[in-house]
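Appendix C: a fully annotated inverse folding record. The material below is reproduced so that readers can follow the format used throughout the book. The structure is listed first as tokens, followed by the designed sequence.
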């Protein structure tokens, strides 16, 4: 399989996102929105810098940033085809710039509650926009981000393909009994060699009893023959993440308890993937996975939710958990990753990332699952 260069991937519809956002502002009870999440700024404008705010106002959209991005910001906005302009000012002067932009155009200005600290909210209310009613909003942009356009799906698929190929390339190292950390570094380096900007999160390599810790950090422990190794990792391609977990081993799987755990988790994961479809409550996907593990007597050993959305963030909406209120829709991209964790013995987790369709789902991750 030949990996597609980023420049040849399906273009994204970045330019159309601001219009869809404006259509939602009335429901949020605001006239304009101050976007401070850098991920949301990138989604709406194409700007990838580390500092800035996007003012989505009734008559204009303006990115306010500093001099480091005086060239980059307008170039990226223009490349994305977004109808917005840039205002560049040193950080101490940005308050006056932002105050002048808002002026009397917005009586009720939304803030992203999940991304604004208490101190910053106080500053906005007292010195930036003292004459404007500031309104806390939740998930206005994130709701748009749930449904991926074809360009986003192409990047997610490309990131997943890089991860699949990287694991295939480094897996033979297991026969050498490497340290967890060395295997993780080799996997990360191979993803970069294949075109990833880097890993989409800190790679997890958890061998033997370390597998009982869902987010174990790889260390100096050597991977032994015949013991399961939980490998949870992903690639980052043009800002988009992949996420996959495989539980693998070299030689015969020695421990009968863990052998059974592999069988149960594989059945649970298959049940969860089969449950994914448009119109299905995300909590029902979690239930499908959990029922299989509970029937095997390990209900208390499945200690996390079944999955999460994947996109510009490695964890984003929708949530796939017992507590989730989300309903799956076409274009949602979610993980299905049940696990069993047995302290002092080890653990098993198997995960795929899938695209929700009207008929079910399409997996993006394709590495075969090991079975005893």
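Designed amino acids, in order:
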């Amino acid at each position: 399989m030949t990996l597609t260069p980023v420049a040849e991937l399906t273009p994204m519809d970045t330019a159309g996102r601001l219009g869809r956002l404006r259509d939602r502002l009335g429901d949020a009870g605001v006239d304009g929105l101050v976007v401070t999440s850098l991920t949301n700024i990138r989604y709406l404008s194409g700007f990838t810098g580390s500092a800035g705010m996007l003012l989505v106002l009734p008559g204009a959209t303006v990115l306010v940033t500093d001099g480091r991005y005086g060239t980059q910001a307008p170039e990226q906005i223009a490349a994305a085809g977004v109808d917005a302009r840039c205002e560049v000012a040193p950080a101490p002067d940005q308050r006056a710039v932002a105050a002048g932009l808002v002026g009397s155009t917005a009586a009720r200005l939304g803030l992203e509650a999940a991304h604004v600290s208490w101190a910053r909210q106080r500053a906005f209310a007292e010195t930036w926009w003292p004459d404007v009613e500031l309104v806390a909003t939740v998930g206005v942009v994130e709701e748009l981000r749930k449904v991926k356009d074809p360009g986003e799906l192409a990047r997610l698929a490309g990131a997943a393909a890089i991860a699949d190929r990287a694991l295939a390339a480094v897996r033979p190292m297991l026969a050498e009994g490497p340290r967890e950390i060395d295997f993780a570094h080799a996997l990360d380096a191979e993803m970069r060699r294949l075109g990833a900007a880097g890993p989409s999160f800190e790679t997890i390599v958890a061998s033997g009893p370390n597998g009982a810790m869902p987010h174990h950090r790889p260390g100096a422990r050597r991977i032994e023959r015949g013991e399961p190794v939980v490998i949870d990792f992903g690639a980052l391609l043009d800002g988009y993440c992949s996420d996959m977990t495989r539980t693998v081993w070299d030689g015969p799987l020695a421990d009968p308890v863990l052998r059974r755990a592999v069988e149960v988790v594989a059945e649970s994961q298959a049940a969860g993937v089969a449950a994914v479809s448009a119109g299905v409550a995300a909590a029902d996907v979690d239930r499908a996975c959990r029922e299989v593990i509970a029937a095997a007597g390990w209900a208390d050993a499945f200690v996390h939710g079944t999955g999460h959305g994947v996109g510009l963030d490695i964890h984003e909406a929708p949530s796939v958990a017992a507590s989730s209120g989300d309903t799956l829709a076409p274009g949602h991209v979610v993980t299905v990753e049940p696990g069993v964790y047995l302290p002092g013995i080890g653990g098993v987790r198997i995960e795929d990332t899938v695209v929700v369709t009207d008929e079910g789902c399409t997996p993006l991750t394709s590495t075969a699952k090991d079975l005893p």
